[in-house]
Amino acid sequence: MEHTEPLTTTESTDHSPAPSRAQRRGARTHRWRRDTVELAAVFLSVTAADLVAKLVVHGPEGPVVLAASAVALLATALFHTWWSHRHHLHGPPAPDASAPPGPPAPNAAEGLKGPLADFEQTALWRVRTTVQDSPGSLARVCTAFAERQVNIISMQSHPLPNGTVDEFFVRAPHALTRTDLAALVASAGGHDIWTDPADAHDLVDVPTHVLALATRTALDAAELPIALRRLFGQCAIRQYPGAARRGGAGVDGHLMRLPVPSGDLIELSRPHLPFTPTEFARAQALVELDTLLGPRVPDVRARLRLPAGADLTVRRADEGDREAALAMHGRCSPETLRRRYHGPVRDADRYLDHLLDARHGQTLTVEAPDGRIVALGHLMWDDGSAEVAVLVEDDWQRRGLGLDLMRRMAALALEAGVETVYAVTHSSNTGLIATMRKLAAPLDYQVEEGTLVITAHLAEAAEELPVPWPTRPGR
Asked: How distant is the alpha carbon of residue 465 from its chain centre?
């Protein structure tokens, strides 16, 4: 009976045959010959260098030898450049026709054909939908996106009592329209679908975005309305003094109410998209941070030198400037106060408490060298726009203070994402009209019963506006 030994196989990632003994001996011989040739070349180079050195030092024609060597080196370099260029132009040698055909080389142009060709030009979208809170609901939406080559960049969920709101930031082929995206999500079981074009600013993840807004709010109380608008997109924000007791905090569809401990009520409305409890929690956290830090205005200043030689200071005003502002009111004529406040002169002083509160906007002040306030500028947030107003003491008018304040306030509005500002005045106030015209921005005029509303569209004048402050703390 024939006995057979068991065979043992060992897997290996190297499938090339092992070298034979003759091959190993040939490799050793090749290395020995190469070392001998390199050693001989070294000796030859040393001998040639010694010969050239003796000719240059002791020979009568040393400079000629050096010049000839330089010419020879230059000619060699030029020949090498020509040869390399000729070889590059001719390309690799033609393949052997007798060789068996291999796989075709990849072609970049052909590689873009097919479904992936749509990614050559894509668009960014924000897509929001409500789905059932059940296993697989999110997977069905993601699968629908994948089938149409829609890339999900980021996603966040907002839990609801009877479902979940999923918000996607996606990159989709240009061939897909807003209607196509909505139909795609609807086919995967989504409803209450909302889509909106996005841009590169939306690439920031939500925690980073919220932390940046909280930082800005912590530095400046006037940033709270701007932070809420940037957090929720296009929404109307109104603050009602002393109205917190009229309605409790919470979300009611497209309306969000945020009571402030001071007694005010902040109301946000967004007609195109309902708010979620998650968004309410984020907004409430920003309001609580603002309340905890209390009134605060950054210490920012700029120098303003007039042609007459006066050296003035422009800075942010706060509640501590009330007495100085009241003193400036006392130095203004009744006509100046009437043009600014559009009402009885005796009511001008009571407006200061509201204007100097940083939660309603930003107030700029111009200080003379002796510390007196000679001009005030008010930038008051109003939904997606802002109201601007300027008051200059009579003795300091027609020196460019009003224009400087108006330009700075316009720049601050643009920095906050507000692209339109408006001024309310009398139709006879030619000074304010001339100041608004000097903003180099398109203006709209609306006159009703002697009241003139001038609206400036700042986007087209952005390059003409100055930097409000040379340095800003924490920015």
From this structure: 20
149-152-156 Cα angle (round to 5): 150
What single-letter amino acid sits at 121?
Answer: Q
Q: Which residues contact 277 (CB under 8 A, 6 or more apart)?
A: 158, 159, 160, 251
Measured at the CA of 329, the angle between CA 328 and CA 330, to 5 degrees, comes to 90
Neighbours of 260 (CB within 10 A): 20
Cβ atoms of residues 331 and 395 within 8 Å: yes
Q: CB of 432 within 8 A of CB of 405?
A: no
Query: What is each CA distance from 17 to 8, 23, 26, 102, in whole angstroms?
Result: 18, 12, 17, 22
Question: Which residues on neighbouring strands pair with residue 315, listed in sequence order?
Answer: 301, 365
Query: Which two tokens mark 76?
Result: 């060699």
Q: How far apart are CA 467 and CA 460, in angstroms?
A: 16
Query: Block means of pLDDT (10 residues each) for the chain, length 475 residues?
Result: 39 44 50 63 63 61 61 64 54 49 45 44 89 89 92 86 86 91 92 84 77 88 86 81 67 86 82 85 89 87 83 91 92 89 77 83 92 94 87 92 93 88 88 90 87 90 81 54
Do residues 358 and 318 make contact, with C-beta atoms less than 8 angstroms apart? yes
Q: Are 295 and 221 in contact (CB under 8 A)?
A: yes
Kindly state the tokens that stand for 286: 């920003």
> Strands 385-392 and 420-426, how do they pair?
parallel
The pLDDT of residue 338: 86
Which single residue is written with the structure tokens 């907004």? 283
Least Cα distance to 380 among 256, 267, 238 occurs for: 238
What's the confidence (pLDDT) of residue 82?
62
Domain residues of the chain, as ranges?
Answer: 118-202, 206-293, 301-464
Residue at 159: amino acid letter: P
The C-alpha angle 259, 265, 269, rounded to 5 degrees, equals 100
Q: Rounded distance, CA 469 to CA 409, Å?
A: 11
- In the three-class reduction of DSSP (H, G, I as helix; E, B as strand; rest coil), residue 306 is classed as coil
Instruction: Quote the CATH superfamily of domain 301-464.
Output: Gcn5-related N-acetyltransferase (GNAT) (3.40.630.30)
Q: What is the CA radius of gyration of the chain?
A: 38
First to last CA, the chain: 92
Cα–Cα distance between 258 and 244 in angstroms, integer?
8
- How many angstroms separate the CA atoms of 145 and 135, rounded? 18
* Cα 436 to Cα 425: distance, rounded to the nearest angstrom: 12
> Can you give the length of the chain in residues?
475
> Looking at the domain that runs over 118-202, which CATH code has it been given?
3.30.70.260
Phi first, then psi, for residue 393 (nearest 5°) are -60, 145
